[in-house]
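Researcher: I'd like a structural prediction for the single chain below. Treat it as a standalone chain; there are no partners to consider.
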Amino acid sequence: MKEWSNCLELERAPEKVSGAWLFRGTRVPVKALFENLEDGATVDEFLEWFPGVTRRQVESVLDFTATSLEPSGAA
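Model: Treating it as a single chain, here is the predicted structure.
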């Protein structure tokens, strides 16, 4: 698994939302994205519900997650 710290669209600060990984520049935890997607929400719905988060950020996190699941050495 890759480190979330390598995803430029995220940030973490102990004083913000108990140190959870957040979409950079927001107080929206990345966990909220995955919880909403698991519950059947679409990316468009998530973006509507969390207006501070950009589509670029969501796509970056999803791409980052997908590549972190690839076997080592995969391109």
